[in-house]
Structures are given as C-alpha cells and as structure tokens.
Design a protein that fits this description.
By secondary structure, the chain is an alpha/beta fold. The protein is 30% helix and 19% strand.
Length: 182
C-alpha cells in the first residue's frame, strides 16, 4: 500500500480532510460519521450545508449503515451500474447526519471502480465523503499539486495519482424515479 494511502487513512481516522483522485476530478473526503470533519469541508469549499455530500465506497456493504432498506427493484439497478461511475440518490438511514445528507431524507452514494478509490476505501474499511476539490462555483481541480496550491495546509493528506478518464463528474440518478439529476 502506498504511503499516500496510509497517510490518508491515518488522517481520516483522526477526523481529517483528505484529497484524492476520483473518476473525473480530484475529490475532498472525510469520515462521513464525523460532523466536525464534514463542517471543515463545507468551510474549505465555502459550500452551503443544504447541498449535502456524496458517499463513495469500494463495495455496496460499506454503504448499508447509511441507507434505508433497499427495495429489490432498486437493487437490480445498483447491480447493473456498480461498480461504476454512476451515483444514486437513495433514502437515507435515520442515523445519517444532517450535514452529510444536506438535511434531506436521501443520500447520494456510489460504488466506484476507480482503482485508487477502491484501495482507499478498503484500507479505511468503509465509505468516505466525496465532493469535488474546489471552492464552490470554481472549476474542480485535476491534480494533487492543484489541490496543494489551492488549499495548502487546509488539507491533512493528499493522495497523488491520476484521475479517471471521465470527461465530467459522474451522472446522478434518483433511484426511486430514475430521473437524472446531473
């Protein structure tokens, strides 16, 4: 395992904020159960809390505790799309922080096939927050160096690797209606 991933896992375990490559852009992440870390990301990005966050995982079972029970028809959609670059908005567990969900009863989730994201989530032992590495309203950053230049010491660890090959962030679908939200 790379030193960058080990440093990122250590930062996550200490309530830190990390940056890492995703399918299309660099992302900022933290432990989704840590409200102080979630608030730090909101502050770093100058992001409004009502927008909520995406959770990214290496396996669907890493998302189970964050979601309400999954209907069989939804599971078929998930099985067809994951792992892969598709994010679904799904009913959230009652235990999910309002900072994570954006005060909604839903949560955006994805099981990634990006090799680094898989390694990171497996090493951490669970899902992590995934939001584009940028200040709200600005273009998402593409490299670890861009993240370092923009955010400096505001980020506790940066995993340096290439972003995936998608030209734009993943599509987001409402699992209940099938409507594309992004």
């Amino acid at each position: 395992m790379s030193d960058d991933i080990l440093a990122a896992v250590e930062a996550l375990n200490k309530g830190g904020v990390i940056a890492y490559p995703t399918e299309a852009v660099y992302g900022l992440g933290c432990d989704p159960r840590n409200d102080k870390a979630l608030q730090r990301i909101l502050d770093i990005k100058h992001r409004e809390a009502h927008k909520g966050f995406i959770l990214i995982a290496s396996h669907q079972d890493q998302l189970t505790s964050y979601l309400a029970p999954i209907q069989a028809e939804w599971q078929q959609k998930l099985d067809a799309a994951w792992p892969g670059p598709v994010t679904f908005v799904m009913p959230a567990s009652d235990a999910v922080s309002s900072l994570l969900s954006g005060q909604r009863d839903t949560l955006a989730v994805r099981v990634s096939q990006h090799p680094l994201v898989v390694k990171l989530c497996d090493a951490y032992g669970g899902a992590i927050v995934s939001t584009s590495a940028n200040r709200s309203g600005h273009p998402a950053l593409q490299t670890g160096q861009d993240v370092q230049d923009e955010f400096g010491d505001l980020i506790d660890a940066i995993v340096n690797a290439n972003v995936g090959t998608l030209a734009s962030p993943t599509h987001i679908f409402d699992i209940r209606t099938g409507q594309q939200l992004r």
